Amino acid sequence: MTNVTLEQWQTLTAIVDNDGYAGAAEAMNKSQSSMSYAIQKLESSLNIRVFTIEGRRAVLTPIGRIMYQRAENLLQTARQMEKQAAQYAEGWEPVIKVAMDTLFPEWLMLEVIEHFTTEHPLTRIELLETVLSGTDEALLRKEADLVIGGRIPPGFLGNPLLTITFQAVAAPSHPLHHLGRDINYEDLQLHRQLVVKDSGSRNMDAGWLGAQQRLTLSHIHTSISAATKGLGYAWYPKLKIHNELTLGTLKALPLEMGSERHVQLNLIYADGDYVGPAARRFGELLTDAIAKAECLQVP
Amino acid sequence: MTNVTLEQWQTLTAIVDNDGYAGAAEAMNKSQSSMSYAIQKLESSLNIRVFTIEGRRAVLTPIGRIMYQRAENLLQTARQMEKQAAQYAEGWEPVIKVAMDTLFPEWLMLEVIEHFTTEHPLTRIELLETVLSGTDEALLRKEADLVIGGRIPPGFLGNPLLTITFQAVAAPSHPLHHLGRDINYEDLQLHRQLVVKDSGSRNMDAGWLGAQQRLTLSHIHTSISAATKGLGYAWYPKLKIHNELTLGTLKALPLEMGSERHVQLNLIYADGDYVGPAARRFGELLTDAIAKAECLQVP
DNA sequence: GCTAACAAATCTAAAAAACTGATATATAAT
DNA sequence: ATTATATATCAGTTTTTTAGATTTGTTAGC
Lengths: 299, 299
Known about the structure:
The structure is a homodimer.
Chain A: H1 6-17, H2 21-27, H3 32-46, E1 51-54, E2 57-60, H4 62-89, E3 95-101, H5 106-119, E4 124-130, H6 133-140, E5 146-149, E6 158-170, H7 185-189, E7 192-196, E8 213-217, H8 220-228, E9 234-237, H9 242-247, E10 251-252, E11 260-269, H10 277-292
Parallel strand pairs in A: 3-4, 3-5, 7-8
Antiparallel strand pairs in A: 1-2, 5-11, 6-9, 6-10, 6-11
The structure holds a DNA duplex.
């Protein structure tokens, strides 16, 4: 079904780009007659003319011009494939899988992905958002090469990335805000806690204070929006509820103790023995980006 | 720079699709040993392995899987190019240029384009929006294969497509609406008329009543929005101001005579002698679409 | 554990293709 | 008219691709 070879398409583009058979021949390190041969082959197998001789120059026909454009595109993708293979041959992974705990600020991740893909356009990134034990599983099942998570499963090595500060909050209208005193453990027990669903199968719990009622939501953003509507109280990363706190749709709860909690997020490579250069570079960019982002600095 | 031939990529996909060298050989009408040869060639020139022998089966390596995906894509575009060439060889234009007077309802044009491109995905459409003499010029300068316009320049043949009804309108707040009587020619003279700029070089005039002041705008939509803001009166195609009339942001002017005008739009082929099958088909679809659209029927 | 069946790799000779250099043809410039 | 330039054609050579036989290694049945 494909009768025209890449080399024939390339001959077409070379003739156009080096205006003429002679130039193309030189550019391709071949003889002029083989240029002629290639075009004749192309023309006869497609049953069209791509060049007409005007005077003593070869000029593209209308369909030739279109084929030229498409040929350029075809060749470019073919070249890119070979380039990617070459990168792989040098040890660069063609794809890296990154698992990220939803606690991690996504804007920062997007920034790093942006940076990485401009630096290495041929390495694809697959991003997996995980929660708690889901992050562990991604590591253990080798579903990710690079993981950002709070727990470091036994046998893995992790580097601290950044510390996430959690704040206990509820909507201003929530009863907990109208006790007229600091809130204690028993008060919390009486109200509904919003919990983010564990993406793994082991079902760990983010909120360990046993609240009578719970509302488990699958994503932190859903959960936050539930909290603003007064559906319950919850601990959220301060960074993720900055807007809600300034707008006043969420308000910090005055707990007797433990109003703030801290979780350390770590950068963990799935395979400690051999980390591919792409995964390693991605990790570097992540660390750099965090170092630069002053809003993440612990004062 | 391209060392791997299309046929080698195709061998790769054939082996995957027909699970095995033997199947691929049969599918490609070649011998098993030439499959083996092609893959070895590919692997050595890319310096990667795309298959590993697991047991007695050839299985894709990770990079092989990625290359397979990309190869499928590459081959598909190569095949499409040849298909397009074949269509051209049979007389189908690779691109048709359509010039459309802005009076023509654009939703209808988009509908027809949608229909045509699903029917003939390999023929590209270039749409040129023209006004008055611009439409003529598109024909005369052979800038379009197919033209929808009001005037049929001498020497061309046109088929009536549809009749556009113009309505004289102004914003409800406009002084012309507060005369307390029917509007006559002299009344109009005293006010600013909104005119759509001729896209051609001959500069014909859409509004022929010589109004003292004129505001010439380049596009009918700009003009309509100017009219709703009370900047002047104008004649617009009823179809184009349906929304404005129902919302009341524009109101029909009670003229003594000539409150409505009619313009016939015609379908004109640039080259009467030989119309390509794509252009002809596009014309058919246009005519059909107009016949079907009941809101365009003259009662 | 042995054997038959199977799948891919290797080898060699043959066939197909692509390539070159020389030459022919046609056009533009002088 | 003559020369320089650009593509086409031809004939012989080189390179690449192919088929068929054989080999190597694996699985499944007995």
